[in-house]
Structures are given as C-alpha cells and as structure tokens.
Amino acid sequence: MRTMKNLISKQRSLLLTALLTLLTFGTVSAANSTLATNDMVGVSFWLASAMMLASTVFFIMERNNVADKWKTSMTVAALVTGVAWYHYTYMRDHWANSYAASGDAQVGDSPLVLRYIDWLITVPLQVSEFYLILAAIGVASAALFWRLFGASIVMLVAGFLAEANEDISAISDGMVWPLFAVGMLAWIYIIYEIWAGEAKESVSGASEGTQFAFKAMALILTVGWAIYPLGFILGQGDGGTDNLNILYNIADVVNKTAFGMMVWYAATMDTKAAASEE
C-alpha cells in the first residue's frame, strides 16, 4: 500500500515538473529581450530566475522522500520559489527591455509592481513555514499563524506605499520614511515572535534537526531580510535603482532558496530519525 502511494506521489511530482518545463518553454519563447554585457542588474535577474526554477524542481522531487507530516511544508517551499520564478521571468524581461531602450537604468525601469505582487504572495507563505514546522510536531496554534500573517501583510503594504509614493498622489514625500518605519516595526515584531515569542517556546521540545532548521530559518529571517531595508535606503539616492534591484535580487535568492532548504533539512532529518526508531 505504501509503495503504491509513493509511486502515485512520484508520478504527481514528475507531472508538476513537466508542467514547469512547459511553462519555461513558454516564457523563453515569448521573451524578446536582449541581455547587455554591461548590465549587471540584468545578470542578477537572470541568475535569480534560474535559481528559483532549480529550487522549485528540487523541492517538488524531494517532497516524495519525507514523512507525510512534512509534505505540506515542502509544498509551500516549492510554491515560494515557483511563484518567485514565474514573476522573475517577467521582471527580468521588463528590466532588460527598458535597459535596452534607454541604455541606462532609470527610476521607471525598476519592476516595482511585479516585485511587490511576488512578495505579497511569497512572504506570507514564508512566515507560515514557521507555523507549519510547529504543526508538523503538533505544537502550533492558529493564533500564531494569523499574527505572523498579519504582520507580514502590514510590512509589505507599508513598504509598497513608501516605494510607490511618486506614483500615488495621496502619499507625499514626507510620508516615505514614516511608512518605512511602519514596515520595519512589523518586521521587528515577526522577529520577536520567532526568537522570543510563542514560536520559540513551542519548538523547544522538537527534535534536534527541527530545532536546527528552525533557528537557521529564524536567522535568515533576521539577517537575510535585513538586505531589503538596506536596498530601500541605498535606492533613495541618485542612481540608486541599480543598487536597489541587485540587493533585492540577492535577498530573494538567499531568503527563498535557503529558507526552503532549511525546511527540507528539517523534514529529512526528522524522517530519518523516525525511520531509525521503527
């Protein structure tokens, strides 16, 4: 029975991988952009999209090798990188086309709306991974999920309004930094919940592998996510569009792929530990 179930699961994974391949062909064939040799921002977009796709395939295939209680976490990890890959195929073309048209980076070249659409989907999924890891070991609460989810939405909305102030008449220049501060406070609250709040207390009784992965994910959320406000600050000056996009792309690759790898590590270690006890 278990063998049949595993076979069906593998067939589903192969089907999803084939679907991703078809989507890849579609985006590549539809692209009419050319990457300039001196366009380092464009290079970072292409590298990020490739890393996201590779990570998605890896998480989908490895989902078959973990215990059932970890499959949802692995699915979410694949969703995070998969959604990011899909949006990056459009962000990279947007950047390359505008770069080719202008010969240089302009403020309007940054794919702001596409990036925040991506974040609005992937960031709440990422913070929900902490809840899912705790749910896998039976110590999660719904209240924790909603607190993390709500804080991530506040962080993203405040960040978008701060960055899009030039296009939104209701947002004056004087509101940029207060909105930035609101986003920072929401991020700090998420950090508190993970390092000192309910999540920290709940994971204390988990297996060694799960605790290691949880702490590594918390470190990524603290240190890795710090790249985003740094990119925002550096992007405020003249010629800051390049700095902003390179830092955002680096942060996305590190935070989305490494985050998922920690989920995979926890799932693999816990599955092996459970198998050795049988």
Automatic annotation (TrEMBL):
Gene3D superfamilies: Rhodopsin 7-helix transmembrane proteins (1.20.1070.10)
Keyword entries, A-Z: Chromophore, Membrane, Photoreceptor protein, Receptor, Retinal protein, Sensory transduction, Transmembrane, Transmembrane helix
Single GO biological process annotation from the record: phototransduction
Compartments it resides in: Membrane
Membrane topology: Multi-pass membrane protein
Any one GO cellular component localisation term in the record: membrane
Molecular function terms from GO: light-activated monoatomic ion channel activity; photoreceptor activity
TM regions (residue ranges): 40-60, 72-88, 130-162, 174-192, 212-234, 246-267
Family from the record: Belongs to the archaeal/bacterial/fungal opsin family.
The protein's name in its UniProt record: Proteorhodopsin
Lineage: unclassified sequences, environmental samples
